[in-house]
Specification:
With 594 residues, this protein is α+β, with helices and mostly antiparallel strands. The protein has a seven-stranded antiparallel β-sheet, covered by helices on one side. A six-stranded antiparallel β-sheet has the order 19-1-2-23-24-25, with helices on one face. α9 packs across α10, α9 packs across α11 and α11 packs across α13. The chain starts with 9 loop residues before the first helix and ends in an 18-residue tail after the last strand. 42% of the residues are buried.
Amino acid sequence: IATHLHNLPLEFTLLHYQPRPWSVVDCLLLCLHMYRSLTTSWKDEIVKNNMMAQGDRAKVEFLYPMRGMGDASAGSNSWAIAGSHTASGKPLLSSDMHLEYSLPGIWYMTHLEAPGLSAAGVALPGTPGIIVGHNQRIAWGITNLGFDVQDLYMENLDDRTGRYLFRGQVEQARGEREIIRVKGKPGVEMTTWVTRHGPILIADGKERLALRWTAAERGMFQYPFLDVDRAGNWREFTAALARLPGPGSNFVYADVDGNIGYHAAGALPRRHNYRGDVPVDGASGNFEWDGYIPFDELPSVYNPPSGMIVSANQNTFPENFPYPVNGIFAPPYRAQQIRALLSARNGWRAQDLLAVQKDVYSAFSHFLAGQLVGAYQRRNVHNPGLDGAVDLLRVWNGQMDKDMAAPFLVTLAYQHLRRAVAENASAASGLTYEFILAPVVVERLLRERPAGWFGDYDELLLRTLADSVDEGRRMQGRDPKRWHYGEYLRVAIHNPVMHEVPLVGKYFDIGPVPMSGSSTTVKQTTRALAPSMRMSADLGDWERSQLNIPIGQSGQVLSSHYKDQWADYYNARSYPMQFGKVDVKSTLVFKPAP
């Protein structure tokens, strides 16, 4: 910044903005941004609490399971396969972290070299160290653990004085005064009361909810990634992970000696007698954290007999885990499909694994299509308005392909079913219930068809089918054969500054473009998120490894590298991840100030 004050990126000129010098605080803010993106769960607590207050508590609990049907064992996708399954006889490790779209992208491809350090992969700009990648001896990948590290506490607090009750005693909250600067207007002053449980997040009527979050606890700013980058074996690797405060993560590991491993990491609250899935009474003192779960007790595996470790955000905590488990865990479909694809053959090479990373088969959507067709056939219904749609579903292979019609119809059907299930449990909750494990809930209801939910499940499916076809026709025309899933799943990635420039701003954006995939496919793709990088590391020869990011390496809108990777990312192509033999095209030298 100091040496480029008169040659800053174009956005600074447009905003009339002069950046201040970078500081350690900015590095911490970037880490907190990732922490917030990956661990925010309090909103689900509010939704669940409201549904329980208005509806059938047992049914609402059914809507919020903590694991899927047939969860895979312990390994965002990341997997490691032992040499017994590979062409080289050495392990392969793949990682593609799923994050929100952004332009510029969140990752910067980097190779760091220093005395005792040589590591390559992706880094978080503005923070030290490789987050996912490999060094000379080991490779590692990460997926979000999803364990709940936020609790909401109902506080008995006086807004005027900041006094509140805790275990029968009056305590004084700390007032934090903020001045929010507003362009062209006086600043707005805001005071937030901070209790022993955290800041008051919600003040609605008489309700006062404080948020306790591990990121705000003392000692939460340790940064172990430079030690991860230097680790040469499993012992050194896990010793570094033991220092990670968060966000809670699944780490998948492989080394040149042929070992593979998995370990969960992060400061995870140790709760007693409650899960933290709904707001709790802050005054009683009965719902306090008892430190954190010891690292050695977190899920882990080393050299499993299968020679395969798969992590896809599924719940890796065993059912007999000694502490209450709550969190936002993914349905098992991605993990099961990855394992099925990897088990189907041997002789894998790094470049072959792109086929797994781009896979768009949805076992859930395929199952739902079969349920709709089955209900139609069992009722012997012959509705000219539905026959064509049913024919599409009958022959569909479960691929969430942008050029197909069936994925569009199934997606609409799932949304109608999810709303119907939620409203059956708690009236008027259909639009608020979007829990990540909702597909598992829908599948379980349709497989088991328990009494007390719907009198006639086939009638529910037929009504869902008719409503979905009507909605599809309103969106994409009368003939279902002409529908395209990609017209529904269209993604646009905007540059947050340049997009606002009239006439020319759109040229600095990506899309809108049709996408394949869904939330239940290995290529997890929605309108909000997608793979933020793709890496496959070859422990037999680092030069055969591959790496790419979605858009481009440069955030400079006028750079040739601003979005030069997009076409390859979109079509699931990648690049050599050069390590020992680097074909240098240009060199940028940073010289520290004296």
